[in-house]
Queue: 2 jobs
Job 1
Amino acid sequence: MAEEAASAPAGTEAPPPGKMTMVAGVDDSDHSFYALQWALRHFFPPGQPQQYRLVVVTAKPSAASAVGLAGPGAADVLPYVEADLKKTALRVIDKAKALCAQVSDAVFEAVEGDARNVLCEAVERHHAEMLVVGSHGYGAIKRAVLGSVSDYCAHHAHCTVMIVKKPKQHKH
Amino acid sequence: MAEEAASAPAADAGTEAPPPGKMTMVAGVDDSDHSFYALQWALQHFFPPAPQPQQYRLVVVTAKPSAASAVGLAGPGAADVLPYVEADLKKTALRVIDKAKSLCALVSDAVFEAVEGDARNVLCEAVERHHAEMLVVGSHGYGAIKRAVLGSVSDYCAHHAHCTVMIVKKPKQHQH
């Protein structure tokens, strides 16, 4: 890694060559915002030169997939579901932007699709070296039924995957 | 996190007292390229060479399987083989530790441990013992079937470790 001149760390305009890209996956859950805050605290310390470029990605499921099992009359509901999903995604992005206020190099994306694919594609697109996701802490059965985005990403993302867990109890 | 004074770079090299709340990172290694790649990746990203201050305390852990578990399915005559297997496993674990020590030469605050037991439990216990905030492991990149049969240490740790788990993958091809 290039040694940075320690005498001019604050407000460095030109990112050092080889600045790493980190994708952070967020959804509308406490676990994922905890993961984002954890990443910010450890990798984007205020006042120090920022070594990473942050890309915050949220996946917006398509309305059709969200009401998939509804049956007749589903078509009528679609526009409302679509509007609600859009609103949720925008709210997630706004909350993420507020959390990342001190990050100089941050990009925010809301992408339509299943979270698993959206995150892995975002990693490819941004040539990210790291993907940060939260973990709902589901047990084995819930995982089998609901699926686990963090598991999928741990297996399929082409970069280092960091799974941040919200502690269930105060450890120390 | 305490804001570090960016105006005093001269005092960074060879800082004796770790800043309060220095994070502990456990790195699991075994005798495979994937896990040394993961260790080197972690060193490259989290332990930049001086004069930058080291923000982490590194604990490198390797698991030495017990000889009995390694020859478990051998059948009669296994008992005779045990001492040789035990010696070989010990040698492997020491070799892994030595290789890790040479890789981590730049790290000021590093501890190396070889613990007997299954890798899954050893790593999760090490996290508990050192109150680590992060666990770094490599990934063999097994497919679904191999995982089901052989088990995956990184999967187990991702589910059961009580801290952030970082799974580092050795790229199969040169990405960019």
Note: Chain A touches chain B at residues 1, 3-4, 6-7, 9-10, 20, 38, 41-42, 45-48, 127, 135, 150-151, 154, 157-165, 167, 171-172 (CB under 8 Å).
Job 2
Amino acid sequence: MDVPAKGGFSFDMCCRNGMMEKKGFKAPGFLKTGTTIVGLVFADGVVLGADTRATEGPIVADKNCEKIHYMAPYIYCYGAGTAADTEAVTAGRESRVVTALALLKSHLFRYQGHVSAALVLGGVDCTGPHLHTVYPHGSTDTLPFATMGSGSLAAMSVFESKYKEGLTREEGIQLVSEAICAGISDDLGSGSNVDVCVMTKGKTEYLRNHLLPNPRTYVSSKGYSFVLGQTEVLATKITPLKQAEVTIGDAMEE
Amino acid sequence: MSIFEYNGSAVVAMVGKNCFAIASDRRLGVQLQTVATDFQRVFKIHDKLYIGLSGLATDAQTLYQRLVFRHKLYQLREERDMKPETFASLVSALLYEKRFGPYFCQPVIAGLGEDNEPFICTMDCIGAKELAKDFVVSGTASESLYGACESMFKPNMEPEELVETISQALLSSVDRDCLSGWGGYVLLLTPTEVQERVLKARMD
């Protein structure tokens, strides 16, 4: 019987999939988050930023996806790499940034880079603001400002020229937005909008779609209007739905 | 040839005003030969939740059977139907479990929530969820479907208009893909009824 598994991976389809590959059927590609993700430490905390494009090869699969993952009340994590991996790796618990870091790096190291998630982890805990980057093989860096993803070079150039210690909150958000915009314009794997997350002691602000530099402008004002009944239909079946009745109290009560 | 192109498929779901529509093609092929023209790709989980599975047909059927099993267990334990968001997380977890030996399916999930808010999402074959507020597509015809839906979709469509739009988007897209088509099936769900239609399409 197929009992639900208690977490971890199951490798029972590997034989069959291997057989298919040998017969010449290539495995499909996965959804990647091409991406520009950045973080910086400012006077009172940490600001993280990301673009919102998800790609499937050269096609944009999602124009406004969320790359931020919540780990704990004041610890957030942005991910690049295979979308499924970054979502699964960040289902964590702890309340110190270094603990979250240790959990992430040990998980990724265990899978020797096959779980392809590159993350920027930032947060504020009782010991102050922290910013770390985690690579798919499990190595980590602790930095005052960091960028990851295909757009990291574009974003790093902005940081290297404009970062200084002791930035204010507004300056931090402004700098992060500029760095992400650089990634959006100069990297094909990143695009759409800018998401920003500001974490300070006791408060997290998630500014979803903080900037919308690429609005959709090719909308036709008329749009397509189809005549009702235009599509040729061979058969129609209409089933009314029963509305669920809620009975208060247990019918079996004596 | 890719494993996804072995059977050929096209699935699309669109959101309307307090309703949603999910549509698929009806071809089952073995590479370039057509074996059936009435293949079911959209399956019912409960009255207000449907899942469309594109990709390898055998994995689609196995995955559907596993999901129905898990949902029935949930119904027995919780004495109610699963919410669409919960079901999407269940599918994602089931697919991610097989991260290194995946099911070759891309599910499209469409459901009506508690307050009759439509919910749609799609995933890649290892469970990366993509929620959308307008439409989601999957299958060999996905590139054409993206284009057709992007131009034909309008927000807050009434049920009749939604059915026309999704049918036209599906039929025009599968006509540009050799591996999918041979008929269309559209399911429209409103809070009071389910309408299923079989469309007349090019049989080539």
Note: Chain A touches chain B through 55 residues (CB under 8 Å).
